[in-house]
Amino acid sequence: MTPYDVIIVGAGPAGCAAAYDLATHHFSVLLLDKVQFPRMKACAGGLTIKAVKALRYAIDPVTRQVCNNLEIGKKTEKRMTLKSQAPVACMTERSEFDLFCLNKTLTAGAEFRVVKKIIAVTEREKWVELVMEQGTLRSKFLIGADGANSSIRKRFAPFPGFRRGFAIEAQAPIKDNRHYDMAFDFGIVTSGYGWVFPKGDHLNIGLYTFDDRIKLKADALRNYCWEKTGHKSIQQPAAFSIGFGGWEYGPNLKRIFLVGDAAGLADPLLGEGLHNAIKSGQAAAHAILQETADGDRASLCYHKHIGPIKADTLAAYNMARWFYRFPAIGYALLTFPLMGSKLMKGYAMGLTLNEIKARIFNLSL
Q1: Nearest-CA neighbor of 251 among 292, 283, 208?
Q2: All structural domains of the chain with their residue ranges
Q3: Which of 138, 129, 101, 123 has the alpha carbon at shortest distance from 19?
Q4: Which of 21, 114, 137, 258 could anchor a disulfide with 144, C-beta 3.0 to 4.6 Å?
Q5: CA 95 to chain centroid
Q6: Is the confidence at residue 217, as pLDDT, over 70?
Q7: Where are the alpha helices (DSSP H) in 109-244?
Q8: 192-198/65-67 β-pairing
Q9: Cα separation, 310 vs 283, whole angstroms
Q10: Are 102 and 38 in contact (CB under 8 A)?
Q11: Nearest-angstrom CA–CA distance, 203 and 171
Q12: 3-64+89-161+244-360 belongs to which homologous superfamily?
């Protein structure tokens, strides 16, 4: 049984962010995932500028399109385009992006292994033990980065405040070389919106709700596609869960941490999770490095480091409850010229939601 410094379950952006930082500090790191990469991953694939800035490496090789403008719609009846001189998002295909991040992480020195099922996890005083069908592994720390449906959270590190949002997405062709801006249409579904993300040679089109009682159907997605593009041809439709409630997550184990959607750290307002996945993965790595260097307990360090992320997700949750209850007022505010310009400038600068709020209301920033 080869011991590792850290084992990470889930090799997506959160897991790779943690593994990359640990491996570059010469820790022995093992990434586990259920499937070999490249893998199909249901996700819109849009990276905010704050997510791009959080990464330790440039993603130009897997960037399909850079977006400066954002089209805001009230259903599909009213719409306004918010413009920016600087990019506000980079569009990727998740299968390409995830493989790119994994290869960067393996180059940094991490290992990767496909594991179909984890049978048991036990936290000891000085290590964590994983029992799998293929055998047993041991590490000083374990990071659960296995998404909204995390088996590590559900079976070994549960917390009561976890909740879900849902999305359904598909690809749609671009006809007649038409230009598309990134678009959000509010009021298309209850407690959510429809989106259109241009990817160069095709569109990613989808529906999102932060209310787990709402059922999203492929027919509704086809109808939205028809209203936005004039055709109902969608390819590879897929639904996926998004993890919320992370403002209530408190790392209560000494050697097992949750990151990204597994910790409920996605943004409930827009359903965006990549930035917080990357930042929480890095925070977990930093906490482990700090315990090793200074003797500070990693769980306390991690709790401190994800404090701003938790505060941002709580602010997004409170805004989502208000915004989706009164979408007409929300749309009016978003399309108010001063509000829209400050919003776009904040996104282009890579600011968090709380930082953008502070700028809009002339607070400390």
Answers
A1: 283
A2: 3-64+89-161+244-360, 163-242
A3: 101
A4: 258
A5: 14
A6: yes
A7: 151-156, 218-229
A8: unpaired
A9: 12
A10: no
A11: 6
A12: FAD/NAD(P)-binding domain (3.50.50.60)
- In the DSSP assignment, the letter for residue 362 is T
Q: Examine domains 3-64+89-161+244-360 and 163-242 and report if their fold is the same.
A: no
Band (pLDDT 50/70/90 cuts) for residue 1 is: low
Q: How far is CA 49 from CA 32, 46, 52, in A?
A: 28, 10, 5
Reported as a single tens digit per residue, the pLDDT across 123-152 is: 998 999 999 988 899 999 999 999 999 999
Q: Please provide the size of the chain in residues.
A: 365
| Beta-ladder partners of 46 | 91
Residues 88-121 have pLDDT tens digits of 999 999 999 999 999 999 999 999 999 988 999 9
Residues 6+ apart with CB under 8 A from 143: 6, 7, 8, 9, 15, 18, 256, 257, 258, 259, 281, 284
Helix (H) or strand (E) holding 72: strand 70-74
Q: What would be the CATH architecture of the domain defined by 163-242?
A: 2-Layer Sandwich (3.30)
Q: How confident is the model over 21-51, as pLDDT tens digits?
A: 999 999 999 999 999 998 888 788 999 999 9
What is the pTM assigned to this prediction? 0.95
Yes or no: say if 145 and 262 are a contact pair by the CB < 8 Å rule. yes
What 3-state class would DSSP assign to 301?
helix
